[in-house]
Amino acid sequence: MRSLVFLCCLPAFVFAESNEATQLAGRVEKYYAGIQDLHAKFEQLVDSGTGGHKRASGQLWLKRPGRMRWDYVKPEKKLMVTDGKLLWIYEPEDQQAFRQELNSATLPSSVSVLLGQGKLGDEFTVTTDAVPGLGTAGDAVLKLVPKKPTAQYRYLHFVVDRKTAQVKETLVYETQGGINHLTFRETTTNRGVPDGKFSFTPPPGTKILRP
User: In terms of Cα–Cα distance, which of 158, 160, 164, 194 is closest to 63?
Assistant: First the structure.
């Protein structure tokens, strides 16, 4: 409950550094910095690295500046929402909610880039990659290795539509061997998502947990 599960396999067989990677990373940044809001359905597969797998699905809403809402509907309901200041994770079945100041929470780069924040080239060494079974025709796979090692993950993969520069999948390769794989579908942008979508008031009787 206290860990933020996000929102990303077979080993890569080609590793190529090219201008395409730099140019495409710049297009991805420009695309997400230029939209006001986004809605998508998502599917998540978490590989523990020791043989265990967990699947989940739901809907995602994003809105600048820094607001997001993840509604998990399967296998059980869970809500993760921030108004840009407070982050809430609400588990209705357990009647408890985790509350944390966003500036003290660590959002993974696989999410922050979708909020139009940060520069991929400043934080990562970006290359193109090829992974069997990942992406479809017309997609490119970017491999992002952090320039400063982190305790949370070793590197990321972004599956990007070459034509639109939209991120279709993110994969986070965790330090302990796990893989967090998110796939986005039916993505729409600039539909005027209301601000109220990103507010949360715990229902009466909810146990509030803090870090």
Answer: 194
Q: Contact 165/18 with Cβ under 8 angstroms?
A: no
Fold entry, domain 14-209 = outer membrane lipoprotein receptor (LolB), chain A (2.50.20)
The whole-angstrom separation of Cα 16 and Cα 128 is: 6
CB atoms within 10 A of CB 131: 17
Relative to beta strand 124-130, strand 96-101 is unpaired
Give domain limits for the chain. 14-209
Cβ contacts of 43 within 8 Å, gap of 6 or more? 55, 56, 57, 182, 183, 185
Q: What is the pTM of this model?
A: 0.84
- The per-residue pLDDT string of the chain (211 residues; one tens digit each, 9 = 90 and over) reads 433 333 333 233 233 445 889 999 999 999 998 999 999 999 999 998 888 899 999 999 999 888 999 999 999 999 999 998 999 999 999 999 999 988 755 566 667 777 777 678 888 999 999 888 888 888 999 999 999 888 888 999 999 999 999 999 999 999 999 999 999 999 999 999 999 999 999 999 999 999 8
**Which pairs count as long-range contacts for 164-170, CB under 8 Å and 24+ apart, including other chains?**
164/31, 165/24, 165/27, 165/28, 165/30, 165/31, 166/31, 167/28, 167/32, 167/113, 167/114, 168/135, 168/139, 169/8, 169/134, 169/135, 170/7, 170/8, 170/110
